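Renewal narrative, Specific Aim 1. Our central claim is that a sequence can be written position by position from structural information alone. The example that follows is taken directly from our test logs and has not been curated for this report. It begins with the structure tokens describing the chain, in the order in which they were read.
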């Protein structure tokens, strides 16, 4: 089978499909390892016999007409990254199968989130800075935190990330409440979690972690009254998306009760995070979108797609295929 790298950013392709991954792909398909085709390169033609495309962040947005013209024989796309919302629809309309490594990208986010939950319920994010000035005061502050046994944690969203976070937290003897309209009662029971509305989650959980999909329906879904109802010494974690809440409400929540903490890996306008008033609060810790795959972790996504390519070639089903129906609810 003839394949190409299809991407507007060659350095990103080289970073995700590192030497070992490229060697493996060469053994599986006929592919030119010296060339990455961007959107403009397709105009050169000569790709009529290409059946598979490998990509990652930087995937071109093509119309159905462009796909038909430049890649008429394309059957499959293997996307070594997360969300395919920006480009997948025209390919699916054209009948091209789309596979995504969103579950591979979920792995580091899950680990990052669970680490933050464990540190939050021990008071680490507030106790450690306090220890710079007074060890005794820091220990007195620490006494207000419950630790990680038999506590209640709330998860907003139970997709690829939320589901794995839930499994790990339940295995650590925590009670997990989940808000997710797409999660059935049977699925919740199998996970060992309880479905709840956002009002209950925010008002009763020691930690609330946002993993809702980034969809028009979720913009502003976290209301002011939810945030202002959070418990003293509770923590709000956001590795989902910034527009799902109004940051002015989050600011008021943190100022109203300074024992609360926010850990934000995403913001409404991430390029302006330094000037954001939230950045001036001691009880708000902001990171530059680091929860997802980074460093060598990005290679895991390429491996997932190469595994999938082998399965598809063998006529086996894949857990990583994206359908048009799935685009309505996934990130």
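The sequence written for that structure reads:
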């Amino acid at each position: 089978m003839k394949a190409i790298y299809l991407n507007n950013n060659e350095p990103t392709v080289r970073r995700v499909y590192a030497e070992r991954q490229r060697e493996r792909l060469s053994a599986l398909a006929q592919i030119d390892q010296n060339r990455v085709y961007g959107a403009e390169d397709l105009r050169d033609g000569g790709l009529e016999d290409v059946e598979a495309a490998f990509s990652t962040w930087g995937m071109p947005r093509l119309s159905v007409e462009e796909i038909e013209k430049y890649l008429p024989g394309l059957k499959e796309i293997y996307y070594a990254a997360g969300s395919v919302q920006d480009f997948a629809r025209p390919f699916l309309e054209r009948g091209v199968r789309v596979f995504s490594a969103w579950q591979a990208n979920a792995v580091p986010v899950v680990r990052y989130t669970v680490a933050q939950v464990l540190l939050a319920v021990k008071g680490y994010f507030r106790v450690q800075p306090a220890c710079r000035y007074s060890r005794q005061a820091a220990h007195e502050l620490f006494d207000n935190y419950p630790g990680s046994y038999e506590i209640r944690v709330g998860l907003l969203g139970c997709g690829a990330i939320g589901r794995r976070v839930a499994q790990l937290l339940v295995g650590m003897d925590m009670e997990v409440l989940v808000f997710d309209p797409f999660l059935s009662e049977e699925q919740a029971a199998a996970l060992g979690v309880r479905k709840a509305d956002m009002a209950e989650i925010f008002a009763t959980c020691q930690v609330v972690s946002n993993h809702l999909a980034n969809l028009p329906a979720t913009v502003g879904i976290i209301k002011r009254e939810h945030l202002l109802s959070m418990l003293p010494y509770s923590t709000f974690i956001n590795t989902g998306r910034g527009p799902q809440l109004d940051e002015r409400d989050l600011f008021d929540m943190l100022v109203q009760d300074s024992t609360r903490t926010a850990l934000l890996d995403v913001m409404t306008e991430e390029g302006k995070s330094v000037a954001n008033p939230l950045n001036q609060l001691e009880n708000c810790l902001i990171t530059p979108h680091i929860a997802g795959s980074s460093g060598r972790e990005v290679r895991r996504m390429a491996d997932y797609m190469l595994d999938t390519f082998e399965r598809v070639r063998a006529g086996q089903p894949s857990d990583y295929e994206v359908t048009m129906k799935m685009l309505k609810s996934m990130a």
